[in-house]
Every structure is written in C-alpha cells, then in structure tokens.
Amino acid sequence: MEIRSKLVVLLFYLVCLSCLQLSAQDGRNALLSLSPFERAVVCIKHFEGLHTWKDYPYVGYGHRLLSGERFTAAMTERQADSLLRADLMKRFASFQRFGKDALLLTVLSYNVGEYRLLGNGKRPKSILVRKLELGDRDIYREYVSFCRYKGQVLRGLVKRRKVEFALFYVP
Known about the structure:
Order of helices and strands: HHHEEHHHHHEEH
Low-confidence stretches: none
Shape: globular
Strand content: under 5%
Radius of gyration: 16 Å
Oligomer: single chain
Helix content: 55-70%
C-alpha cells in the first residue's frame, strides 16, 4: 500500500478516535488543536482506561507498579492523570535523541515498555529503533507490528497503533 493511502486510512482512524473522545462536531478540531503532548495524554487515556484492582500490577492509566511504589487502584482520576504525565515525561527524555519521532516512540513505549524498543542485556534493539538510528523513517510497518499479546495479533492493538501513528508521526 502506498504511503498516501496509508495516511488516508490513518486519518480515518484519527477521526474515529476524536469522535469517541470528544464531541462529534468539534472533536477533530479540538483534538488537533491540543499540543502533541496533550494529544498523547488523551490517546493513552482513551485506550488504557482507568485501571481497577482487577488489573494489578497496573494502576491509573496503565502505570506498572515498580518495587517500592505504594500506589493503589483507589487513586483518583486526577492522581492517575498526574502519574501518566510524569511517566510520559520520563519516557520522553529517553527518546529525545530521535527528534521528531520522540513522542511517537514515547507513546509506543508506554504500552510495550522501553526495553522492547531500546533493548537491554537480554533483548536487542527493535528493528524500529535500528531503522530510525540509520535515518530510515519508513517505519509504518515496524510501528504497527507491535500489536501482539502472548503471540496473538489483537485487532484492538492494531487499531491503537494506527491511531497513534496518525496522531504522532511527523512526515
């Protein structure tokens, strides 16, 4: 599929997201009028939802509890929003070297983990990150490939990746 037709499809998903999150009439304009960081917050809130005690060890809008943290599922939406913003700022700092792709990688890492993208002692860097480091920005296929859970492709994750790409990829 050609890049333009991919962008048209992604724009369609963007419109769908804005209709769900905001009013149908002004949703698209309101979403696009937000700063990119605020769009990231709205996008993650939409797809993650507010986690409950059943989602342990995840609290708030998808924050994974680390050892020593004492957050509970009983947190308010305001506390969850604050925690989400703090998490995104910390992750954004890890990806700043990628320039205009930093926010796109930040949003992806919030769901899949930084180690899946940047690698660690046991896991190599993702193909997505390696392509960006080489200056190749044709990353749509690699970005959307992060849609598996326990080896299965989930339609909801495919939709999420397409919406994220439409919102945060800067040509």
